[in-house]
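From the pipeline queue, job 12 of 40. The input is one protein chain; the requested action is below.

Action: predict structure.
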Amino acid sequence: MNRNFKDGLNFASKLTSQRASNYFRLLSSYTRSKINGTPKISGLPASISIEPTTSCNLRCPECPSGLRSFTRPTGMLSTELYKKVIDELAPSLSYLIFYFQGEPYLHPQLLDMIGYASKNKIYTATSTNAHFLTDDAARKTVESGLDRMIISIDGTSQDTYESYRVGGKLSKVIEGTKNIIKWKKALKSKTPHTIFQFLVVRQNESQIDQVYKLARELGVDEVALKTAQIYDFENGSDLIPVNQKYSRYRQVENGSYTIKNQLLNHCWKMWHSCVITWDGKVVPCCFDKDAHFVFGDLKQNTFKEIWNSEAYTNFRKSLLRSRSEIEICKNCTEGTRVWA
């Protein structure tokens, strides 16, 4: 999502006729599929998320990496596998996201991988807790050509910040942010477009004005307020904000909670994007954090074979029939509001 004009222009500058044509084919096939109720797809994904690692230095609640609750293995994306994906998809790929689970900067070759995508003129983004943005890492980040950096900052005081970012230091986040801004100026670079992502929970909702003020003081390009995903939301949670504007859920008459919006029986993400785990598994989206729905393995098949496989087709078909039957869809952002 490009809500900033300059960031949007940068994204548009990387579009080619082939990428634009691919996007149009995806949109057309998605529209036809919704109307006909039969999943057809034409084109390759316009956007993918690729997971550098499942490792993380923090222990955030409501996060499988933080809770160390994965049933799938922890590891690091190999450069060989990564380049295989990029070489196959680069002609049609518009947007490459370097995160899924874990902290991307724990991968020692992260910036080399970003640089490889940048050379292919693909718009690149990553999300970080900013604890590893040393002066040297910040300089190399700017030099890599990274287009967008989301910095998670869920509090403007240490006690509030660490109430969610367990084990984290707000001072490290601010230091890392300053390093990025400094090197953008020193290298006269317009990128990366920096975003303070503020996950609104009950403990920090009183600090929303303060995070905007801090962003202005540091020179951050944008602030994005994000609503929190709660796994067992039905019984409520101490994380659900008091201000309903910042919640994905609402309380009903019997005292339980439900997702605000209705789950519609279609999903654009299944036609234009996907997630690739560190070990090469292709899964539907960022809500399949533990990789329960694996459509194929890139160590054994090409991406195109997996994208058009029977398993993927059947999953798209089930979405058109009833999303409520699929567990990962029941708490999905396609059915509620993510950005406040």
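Job complete. The two ends are 14 Å apart (CA to CA).
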